[in-house]
Amino acid sequence: MQRGTQEQLGLLLGLVGVICFSLTLPSTSIAVEYFGTTVVGLGRTVVAGIIVALVLIIRKEKLPSPRQFKGLLIVAVGAVLGFPLLTSWAMESLPVSHGAVVLALLPLATAGFAMFRAGELPSLKFWISSIIGSLAVIMYALHLGFGQLQFADLALLAAVIILGLSYAEGGRLAQELGSWQVIAWANIIGAPFFIIPVGLNLTAEMLHAPFIAWISFIYLAVISQFLAYVAWYSGMAMGGIAKVSQIQYLQPFLMILFAAVFLDETVTFFTIVIAMIVVFSVIIGKNTSVVKKGLSGKS
Predict the structure, then answer these.
(1) What sequence ranges are listed for the domain EamA (predicted)?
(2) To the nearest whole percent, how much of the chain has pLDDT over 90?
(3) 40, 42, 43, 192 from 196: Cα distances, Å
(4) Domain containing 63: what range?
């Protein structure tokens, strides 16, 4: 496959992943009301772990090497433990639009960790476009009155940091193990440790949760915790971690759109204007050069 075609496919897969991730906070907001933080935050991994275990056994996938296992631990801590648990806790007290604004900082976190974990050196133009996108979402947060940080905000910021590291590490490992194998093994690593806490928090009342709550939880377990990562890590492996991460700037506004559709949250004209600015920064960012350390060509 030609390099240009590969990067375009990587960007497309990245977009698919972002669309899927954009339904995560709305789904979490719905599910956590009926199942609680622990069951939603960790239970999704238990379900995903069962599914991927069957897939790995059927495909007779070989075990990761000790070096790869260390990287998978980083992915598991971020994508399997930290992010689901922290966002589930935050969504108990924050609206989806609030969480979406904070999570908009993910591209910068991912690109920053990519420099250390994957040896990528984004250009000055890349960083300028990233700063423009970040300033846009900060303006959005201030406009909505989210200037004062709450404990839930700190949880979301922590989620951004650890997921940024997880994304960067997962994108690097995807080039060795394969995209779906990365999140599959990460789920396998985390799931056994979550069975007991999830079991202790299960109640009979949960069986009577409404259909939308069950659909939301199943979406989190099957799509958000596995299939979305397959598309996302495939995209980063093919298109470059820092470059594909720019598409994440669309995620907060897609989250807000889905929140308006499924949770009746309001979408304002100001939101649309900021979304246009962010989309422009994505277009600029994805067309910049990203150089590998020790190499003179583009990544």
Answers:
(1) 9-140, 151-284
(2) 43
(3) 14, 10, 10, 8
(4) 3-292
Counted domains in the chain: 1
In the chain the first and final C-alpha atoms are separated, in Å, by 15
242, part of any domain: yes
Written as six digits, the tokens of 298 are: 């583009």
Helix or strand (DSSP H, E) at 3: helix 3-22
Please check the confidence at residue 271 and state whether its pLDDT lies above 90: no
Q: Which residues pair with 120 in a beta bridge?
A: 292
Q: Which long-range contacts (CB under 8 A, 24 or more apart) does 264-273 make?
A: 265/95, 265/96, 265/97, 270/140, 270/143, 271/140
Pull the structure tokens for residue 14: 């990245």
CB 297 within 8 A of CB 122: no
Would 91 be classed as within a structural domain?
Answer: yes
The answer to whether position 298 is within a domain reads no
How far is C-alpha 206 from the chain's CA centre?
27
Under the banding of pLDDT at 50, 70 and 90, the label for residue 298 is very low
